[in-house]
Amino acid sequence: MARDRRNLPLRDAGRRRARQVRHHRWPCRVPLEPKPLGDQKHVSNSSNRVFVVGVGMTKFEKPGRREAWDYPAMAQESGGNALSDAGIEYGAVEQAYTGFCYGESCSGHRAVYGLGLTGIPVFNVNSNCSTGSSALFLAAQAIRGGIADCTLALGFEKMQAGSLGTTYDDREQPMQQHLLAMAELREIYFPPAPWMFGAAGIEHNEKYGSSPDHYVKIAVKNHRHSAKNPKAQFQQEYSTEQIAGDKMVYPAAGLTRSMCSPTSDGSGAAILASERFVDEHDLGDRAVEIVGQALVTDVAGTFESGSLATLVGADMTRTAARKVYEQAGIGPADVDVIELHDCFAPNELLTYEALELCGEGEGHHLVDGDDTTYGGRWVVNPSGGLISKGHPLGATGLAQCAELTWQLRGEAQGRQVDGARIALQHNIGLGGSAVVTAYRPANR
């Protein structure tokens, strides 16, 4: 049974550091009693407020488990669920932003055509693992800028089994700069994705005294969380011994199969709306507001940093998180529940630091103090995260949005985080983009 986080004493110095971190930089400015929708101020004079009013997702499954399950059916299920959740018809949607990595051009059009043929603009988004959140960002931007009052963000993936590979071998690969820069710092190993994140984990071990045991503990936690998630690809707990003894993927980092996100089929969707739309359709009681959102890409210094963590997105994440905290008027200590991009267990630890839940080099103290699970300071990846919920690239960001919406509504059932009021989402894609989004309930 989940323990009440608010009534537990701090148990060690690591937890005290986490609780105190950055208060001088990020003072809490979140009103305990948000005003009614019509009375709240906008982030800026030129920015409209954005609300999530409906979410949906399929169960995530191993590729090919259901032979006849194609992406149009996935999209119809998740999109239909999101529309039902919002209580609106597809005809109310003014623009659709669809995300996928595995598929032909205009697959996004085909995906939403199963929901309706209304002639609206449909945009196809492809940004590696951050695809779903990039679609969410664009859908929110349309409302924020006054272009639309109701938009759909939908991500889906029908993946190929096995490790990710390339399709076009007659041209430069999008991640070539990242790979070349990393190869100068650490001997290359295949497949490249676990090598990149595993090498960043080794770098943390060497610089700050963490160990592969911390990454095992993170995987144990996320598999434990997913046991309560009926939408997760894996729904059973694994012991420390089972995870550490699983098939080795990158031996130098002690990275096993159970510490890596799997390939997955599935879809997720979110309906976003303006304040006017929320008022007109009386959706305020269930609406969740996006109070901060930022999408950040690589800068020139990324490839000259000499840092493996930077090359896998830590600096992008830090920059995006700071922008979001500023927009939302919150700090890390104000957040209750987090869905972050644990594509490989080391990246969860690196992301603790990039989101400034703790100081640089202190992420493993949060693991040791159980600060990122039920009973701790934050609950991180209550869904099971990418490692255990699954990782259909185009759908991941929308599934994160769905999970946090359910958490803030109090609808997450057996994995509910008690009293959750502020939620944070983090999604990255190598090549590269980092998207961070903050949420809170509209009327409470």
Automatic annotation (TrEMBL):
Residues 50-238 form the Thiolase N-terminal domain. GO terms for biological process: lipid transport. Its main location: other. Transmembrane segments: none annotated. One of its GO terms (molecular function) is acyltransferase activity, transferring groups other than amino-acyl groups. It comes from the Bacteria. It is found in: Peroxisome. InterPro entries: Thiolase, Thiolase-like, Thiolase_acyl_enz_int_AS, Thiolase_C_2, Thiolase_CS, Thiolase_N. Its EC number is 2.3.1.176. Pfam families: Thiolase_C_1, Thiolase_N. Keywords: Lipid transport, Lipid-binding, Peroxisome, Transferase, Transport. Residues 314-437 form the Thiolase C-terminal domain. NCBIfam families: PRK08256.1 (NF006102). This is propanoyl-CoA C-acyltransferase. It comes from Mycobacterium yunnanensis.
